[in-house]
């Protein structure tokens, strides 16, 4: 069971990792490719978290159980803009 607070905690951790990656890149500790690949993965994970929160909010708004919301696959979440 995932609640909104757990999702926000995950988002905070992903954002912190993003900042850490950028700092490591600036310090020369990692290369462009490594930073770019991990940032892309973080972006996908963040999109999935935000999508799950939106699903939960919508279910609550329409009297449904937010616990029935499920994280969607990256291919679905990333396909919204394409």
How would you characterize the overall build of this protein?
With 82 residues, this protein is mainly alpha-helical. It has one domain. Helix content is 71%, strand content 0%. The chain is built from three helices and no strands. Helix 1 runs antiparallel to helix 2. The longest helix is centred in the middle third of the chain and has 30 residues. The radius of gyration is 15 Å and the shape is elongated. The model has no long low-confidence stretch (mean pLDDT 93). Pfam families: DUF2630. This is DUF2630 family protein.
Number of distinct helices: 3
Supply the helix-strand structural class.
Answer: mainly alpha
Oligomeric organization of the protein chains? single chain
**Which of globular, elongated, flat, extended, rod-shaped describes the shape?**
elongated
Query: What would the average pLDDT be, to the nearest integer?
Result: 93
User: Structurally, how many domains make up the residues?
Assistant: 1
Key features?
single chain, mainly alpha, elongated, 82 residues
Summarize the structure.
With 82 residues, this protein is mainly α.
List the helices and strands and how they pair.
Layout: H1 4-26, H2 32-61, H3 74-78
Helix pairs in contact: 1-2
């Amino acid at each position: 069971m995932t609640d909104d607070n757990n999702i926000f905690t995950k988002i905070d951790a992903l954002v912190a990792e993003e900042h850490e990656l950028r700092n490591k890149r600036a310090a020369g500790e990692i290369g462009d490719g490594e930073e770019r690949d991990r940032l892309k993965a973080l972006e996908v994970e963040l999109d999935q978290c935000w999508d799950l929160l939106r699903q939960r909010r919508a279910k609550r708004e329409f009297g449904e159980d937010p616990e029935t919301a499920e994280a969607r696959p990256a291919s679905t979440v990333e396909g919204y803009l394409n």
